[in-house]
Write a structure and sequence with these properties.
This protein is α+β, with helices and mostly antiparallel strands. It folds into two domains: 289 residues, 3-Layer(bba) Sandwich (FAD/NAD(P)-binding domain); 75 residues, no CATH class. 36% of the residues lie in helices and 28% in strands. Helix 1 packs parallel to helix 4, helix 1 packs parallel to helix 8 and helix 10 packs across helix 11.
């Protein structure tokens, strides 16, 4: 989210320094779903066309019974009057980072430093000082404000002594990628599909260019090391679509899911955004999008303060974004996870029937998609003054 904030600030004429601990843009299995309002926001800076060209437009998503194929499908075209991008875009997060970095190269007032780990942060009445560990040693930098977009283990958050309370879910999710064409074998499959599996399991299928991302929820009574073995991954994929050949698996990544919220989004001249401020289940694809929303909201307020408005304006950032993260992002993501982890067949079917009723009712569908696409939350945030 640091690059997002940097672009918004640079575009307003603010001089920016970005410090990144990695040696470059990391191509890994992070988020892949962009919601409509996020595409609207990034379009202002010319980023959205680049993402669309490198991603997959998903006009609908679904919740599905497997293997029967019965499903509820949510058509995002009903949001055409609320957004210029009435669809989800499936595009890997690293492509956003690359597009932002390329765009920042057009701004002489931006400096991006890789292999630069933030080690300490202090602030006084006039500025913020950061200590940076780089390949050539320790250095210090000073600026008027600092945005801590440094992830779940945020040094910036810890430097402020801000608690990061919440829970870690007991299960481990395994994300595997394959080029097998699930869409050719599962009729009416959406590019974003959440599936209840016969028996007690569930999985999700998210398509990105050239790959399907399969989220596998393994047997929790078995050690995760066993579930990560190639034969276990193969068995999980064969349970989705049986085939005589082995699946070609490109990447496998296990991860634990956290629900955490910073007790405060910042103070004085130092403020948090993205995973440094809140962590949530990836169910529903809200984490990265919420981070972009944080970054652009905070950057807009910093521009106003740098142009002479009171620094008290920055507290509005927290009042707008933190309740939305708590009541919309974390709660919705948790509800999405809980729904898909339901094991009782009757309760699953009742949940599916409820979702189908929503999808079949134009007014209910619109209200549901305004909420799940994060448009409603952004409107609520904007109403806080």
């Amino acid at each position: 989210m640091g690059l997002t904030a940097a672009l918004a600030l640079a575009n307003a004429g603010v001089s920016v320094q970005v410090f990144e601990a990695a040696s470059g843009i990391v191509q890994d299995l992070r988020a892949s779903t962009f919601h409509p309002p996020t595409l609207d926001m990034l379009d202002v800076y010319g980023i959205t066309p680049t993402l669309v060209a490198q991603g997959l437009v998903c006009p609908h998503w679904q919740v599905r019974m497997h293997p029967s194929g019965e499903h509820a499908r949510f058509d995002l075209s009903v949001l055409a009057d609320a957004t210029a991008h009435p669809y989800r875009l499936q595009c890997e997060q690293y492509k956003l980072s690359r597009a932002l970095l390329a765009r920042l190269a057009d701004y002489p007032n931006v400096r991006v430093s890789f292999d630069a780990s933030m080690e300490a942060v202090t602030q006084d009445a006039d500025a913020v000082t950061v200590q940076i560990q780089a390949v050539d040693g320790i250095s210090h930098a000073r600026g008027k404000f600092l945005i801590g977009a440094d992830g779940a283990r945020s040094v910036v958050r810890k430097s402020l002594g801000i608690a990061f309370d919440g829970d870690t879910y007991p299960e481990t999710t395994i994300l595997a990628t394959t080029d097998f064409p699930f869409e050719a074998h599962l009729p009416r499959l959406s590019n974003v599909t959440y599936c209840w599996q016969a028996g007690a399991g569930n999985f999700s299928l998210l398509k990105v260019p050239g790959r399907w991302r399969v989220s596998i929820y393994p047997d929790e009574t078995r050690p995760i090391e066993e579930s990560l073995q190639p034969q276990a991954i193969e068995a999980a994929l064969q349970a989705i679509v049986p085939r005589p050949e082995l699946y070609k698996v490109f990447e496998v990544r296990p991860y634990r899911v956290h629900q955490r919220m910073a007790a405060s989004y910042g103070a004085g001249r130092v403020w948090l955004a993205g995973d440094a401020a809140h962590l949530n289940s990836p169910a529903g694809g809200m984490g990265m999008n919420g981070g972009v929303h944080d970054a652009l909201n905070l950057a807009a307020k910093l521009v106003r303060v740098l142009n002479g408005e009171s620094a008290d304006l920055l507290t509005l950032y927290e009042r707008q974004r933190r309740p939305i993260a708590l009541d919309q992002i974390l709660k919705q993501a948790d509800a999405n996870r809980s729904r898909m982890r339901e094991r009782d067949p009757a309760l699953r079917m009742a949940a599916l029937r409820k979702l189908q009723a929503i999808a079949d009712d134009p007014a209910a569908l619109r209200a549901h998609l305004l909420r799940t696409s994060m448009i409603e939350g952004l409107r609520q945030a904007a109403s806080v003054v």
